[in-house]
Amino acid sequence: xxxxxxxxxxxxRAAGVQLSRREMVRRLAAGAAWPLVAAxxxxxxxxxxxxxxxxxxxxxxxxxxxxxxxxxQNESLIAIAESIVxxxxxxxxxxxxxxxxxxxxxxxxxxxxxxxxxxxxxSQKRFAKDFPALEVSQKSQLxxxxxxxxxxxxxxxxxxxxxxxxxxxxFENLKSWVSGxxxxxxxGMKELGWTADRVFASFPGCEHPEGLH
Length: 213
Fold this sequence. Notes:
The protein is an all-alpha fold. The protein has helices spanning 21-29, 42-46, 50-53, 71-84, 93-102, 106-127, 136-147, 162-183, 186-191; strands at 9-11, 198-200.
């Protein structure tokens, strides 16, 4: 990333142990900046919820089942998250988000599910397929258009209107959920420079392509 050497670090050599996801989440919640996560997004407050952190280690269970998402919603989330932030599947972003949603306010939960539904609706409208079934290029096209503001043109050269503005809002919501879940995981923090004996007090921006992160 080119900026790692200039970062302030918290030295954990004395601890002599690898940080758990619970501890990494706590450190992020304590004040370090999350890449791509809006300051007002509910995921920031949820990551301070001890009840959530107590359940984090259970997410790797072979018999894991979603608490909030349906099977179809879970598959959509896996595909969308991986397209927004590559590596999200390995980081089990879908499972962590489902856990967070299980303790979130109904309004925020509805907003997340509405965002998933909006992308599935747009996917069907454009390609007559569910999002997970799209070709990589189709996923990229849809997300690139959704990431554009209402004043920009979409990939077909059309000026974005009210519908596109709504999709953009849903994209920003999902991006914050996915980014918050990904960068609070061991995989995400290692991408930003974390090692077993060092945790950065603040982080640079990620290296994922513009619009698809």
